[in-house]
Every structure is written in C-alpha cells, then in structure tokens.
Amino acid sequence: MRLLSRAGRTTALTLAAALVLSACGSGDDGDVAADDTTEEADDASEDAEEGIDEPDEVAEGVTEVPMWVAFTDYRLDWARDVAADFNDTQDEFEITVQGYDNYEALFDATLLAVDQGNQPAIVQYFEAATTEARDAVSGAGEPLFASVEAAIDGRDEILGVPVVLDDIVEPVQNYYTIDGEFSSMPWNTSSAIMFTNRDLMEAAGVNEIPTTWNEIEEACATVLDSGEADDCITWPNHGWFTEQAVALQDGLMANNENGRADRADEVNLDGEEIVDWVEWWKSMDDAGYYTYSGTQRDWDGAYNAFASQSLPFILYSSSDTTLLTEEGESAGFEVEASFLPHNDDRDSGGGIIGGATLWLTEGLETDVQDVALAFLNYFNNPENAADWHKVTGYIPVTNAAVTLLEDEGWFEENPNQAVAGAQLEAAPESPATAGVLMGNFVAIRDVVTEAIEDILVNDVDVAERMAEADASGQQLLEEYNSLFVG
C-alpha cells in the first residue's frame, strides 16, 4: 500500500472530513493549503462557537489541559466533576472540559484550534469515525492524533495514576485494538439491546420476552389481536442497527475481514445477511408490527413511542438503560432489558459495540501530554468507570470496574444494567463481532439508512435497492481510499 505524500494527505483529509462530517451532523449518536482556507476557517470558527458549553477559566499561573467532548447534558456535568477531583491532585495543571452539541462541531473546532496553535489535549470521537481519526492530519500535514498506547510507552503508572489500558474489557479491546495497539482510550461504550414494557406485553397475552425474529412476529400478532396496543415494536432507522443485525448473523459489512486484516476497499451492503434483515424489517412494517416515525435517525421518535406506552418493545442503545428504566418506574410500568432478537436461521454471531473513545492530540508538550495521559487513566479507574456506568447505562469498560460492581451487588439489584455487557461478552470473537473499520463509514451508514427508508416508504424491492446502496457505498469508499492509496 502506497500512501500519499504529506501535502497530498493534507489536502485529502480536508476532502475526506467534509464527506464524513456532513454525515456526522445528520444525527449520529486535514486542511488544504493556507491560501485557500481563510474563508473556510472563518466559517468553521463561527460554526464552532455555536452549541458550546465552555468551562470556567483556570487560575493565573496554572496550565490548562483542555478536554473536548460531544456532550452538553448531564454527561458533561459528570465529566467535569471527575476532572475537578483529578485537579485536586494537581498544582500546576488543570483539566478543563468543554462540551459540544455534536461530533461535527467538535471535530471542526479541533482542526481549527490545532492550526491556530491552541489545541485541546483530549478529544472525544465516535467509533464509526475511527478510520478517519487515524488518518486525519492538521493543516501542517502532521497527524492530528497520537496513539494513546504508544504515548503510554509501557508505563504502569503516570504521575502516580495507575494505567488501566491493559484492563479494558475484551469486546472493547477487540474493536479498538488496531494494528496491535489502542489508538485511543475507550470511554462511553454501548451496544444495541431490546427493552420491553413487561406490563403491557403481559396484558396483551405474551408471557415471555421474544428472543428471535420469528418470536417477535408471533408476539406482535398476539399484541395487536389483543387490542391492548395499536403498535408493537420500533427502533430508529439508523445504520447502526443494521450493522448489529449483520454481526448477529456473523456477516461482514466490508472485505479484508471487516477492514481488520487490511484497509477495506469493498463494501458489502447487499450480502445475504443484510438483505435477510431488511426483508424481515419490511415484512414487519407491512404487517403493521413495526412502527416507523417517518424520519431517518429519529432516536427521539422511537424513544417517545415506547415511553408513552404505545408499544411493548423497542430496540435501542444501552447507553439509555438508566433513562429508560427510570422512565418506566416513574410512569408505573416495568422495563426489562434483553439481548437483541436474532435471525432464527443464523445465530452464530453476536452484538457489537457503539459509543466513542478519547483521543490524544499530537504535538503536546511532554509534561502536558503526561497530565492528559494520567487523566485519561484516572477517568477510567475502577470507581469512575463503575460510576459512569451507573449514571448512564454505558457498559463499565474495565474488568476492575465490573468486579467492583459485582462485589457491590449492583447487577443483582439492577439486572437491566447487566444486559449490554453480557450480550457483548457472549459474542464469539470474530471479524464480524469486532466491528467494521473503513473510510467514509458514517456517510456509508447514511446510504444504508436512505435505502431502508426507500424500501419502507416506497415499497421497492429489497435486493435491488440494497444493490443500489452497495454501488453508492462502494463509490464513497473508493473516493476516500483514493486519497490515501496509490
């Protein structure tokens, strides 16, 4: 594989970022030469100023070590509380945490800040853009991010903080270990699982939570016949659920072992696993069992349908396990989490992760980098990783955190919180369950989402429409790869 020159890569990454981030901004949950960037930089600066939750200024004489995350809600508050605890151990440095509304604004702001010489030290970026993050370069043509594992350089502790990177739970290791090492530090890790309104399900005459596609169909027929609910099941039309369904059937979304053995250069958007999933999805919609809000990537629409007790089943992100469970408690119904239902004819695969990791920017001064590394490991120490899980529903990402929660009896008292981790642990280790890595992945996700909407709304043939999606996805991948490979 021949990579482009530094100048070529610099131009390439700007174009690639434009493709990727246009998709990021649609709802997912490099630079060109200086003479051509003035207007673009001004636009990026204006965009970056919107939807930002800025931290307080640091005291005079203290070196700020900024961390930027794509949260502006209670999750940002949690991160700031942890940073404050860490800062109590420091005299000369202070971690500050700034929140952005989405990954697009965050990434644009990072590129601009790096080029202006006031870069953040730590940046949150989501799993589907891992390839783009690894490929990204600054306006000067330098890598945007440094390898976290390489920067740790085999140390067991940094500034007195124990290194936890080697204790990351296996499913997360499998996703983020690339070319033999972690490029970034895992943080918010989720999986897609099913949530059931058990009270509504049982009132409709279904006593056991369905575990397969056929069982879902049978349950939905019973629910609708009972008159207890007009709808049965929903999930957002988002590419992530299709990726989950393909992995559950041990299928691949790209060649070269899902981009794990070598850079992916062929998509697989019309394989048997994906066509079977979409055909089942369409059959559920045709039968009146699946409820589509009519909007792509509509997480809120699906959530609200379940929360309003319009239907008993929802496929959703485990990151909202706490919220959904509490939603049921406050409304007086029992929410029970379970594994995703699988294809009755193919059950050899397993669930895959979602979420994001924390990236270390390249070019930090050694002392600043060490503070950032120490904080990344402090952020995921057993107590913090366990508390983050409790507050949100994201899985605990270290084995020590899992052990701590088990010793506390947490999972016995809160069984819903154990489901996502158990589903990931149950998945056999394979390229399918490791998850796909490829360039322009977020834009390719949107190709899948658009195709499925076309199938649901316009009643087009599944195999033919997914073949069209495959061609479109292939073009996006080739456009991306052309910027790196010669």
Walk me through this protein's architecture.
It is built from 22 helices and 14 strands. It has helices at residues 6-24, 38-48, 74-87, 103-116, 130-135, 148-152, 170-176, 198-203, 213-226, 239-248, 255-259, 272-286, 299-307, 321-331, 366-379, 382-392, 399-408, 410-413, 416-426, 431-434, 441-458, 462-481; strands spanning 52-53, 63-69, 93-100, 122-126, 145-146, 157-158, 161-162, 177-178, 181-182, 185-197, 233-234, 313-317, 335-338, 353-361. α16 crosses α17 and α21 runs antiparallel to α22 (462-481). Residues 1-48 have low confidence and may be disordered. The chain is 49% helix and 13% strand. Strands 1, 2, 3, 4, 5, 10, 11, 12, 13 and 14 form a ten-stranded mixed beta sheet that branches. It has a two-stranded antiparallel sheet with strand order 6-7. The protein has 486 residues and is an alpha+beta fold.
Question: What does this entry show, briefly?
Answer:
This protein is an alpha+beta fold and 486 residues long. 49% of the residues lie in helices and 13% in strands. It contains 22 helices and 14 strands.
What brief labels describe this structure?
486 residues; alpha+beta; ten-stranded mixed beta sheet; two-stranded antiparallel sheet; 22 helices; disordered N terminus
Give the helix/strand layout:
Layout: H1 6-24, H2 38-48, E1 52-53, E2 63-69, H3 74-87, E3 93-100, H4 103-116, E4 122-126, H5 130-135, E5 145-146, H6 148-152, E6 157-158, E7 161-162, H7 170-176, E8 177-178, E9 181-182, E10 185-197, H8 198-203, H9 213-226, E11 233-234, H10 239-248, H11 255-259, H12 272-286, H13 299-307, E12 313-317, H14 321-331, E13 335-338, E14 353-361, H15 366-379, H16 382-392, H17 399-408, H18 410-413, H19 416-426, H20 431-434, H21 441-458, H22 462-481
Parallel strand pairs: 2-3, 2-4, 11-12
Antiparallel strand pairs: 1-3, 4-14, 5-14, 6-7, 8-9, 10-12, 10-13, 10-14
Helix pairs in contact: 1-21, 2-4, 10-12, 16-17, 21-22
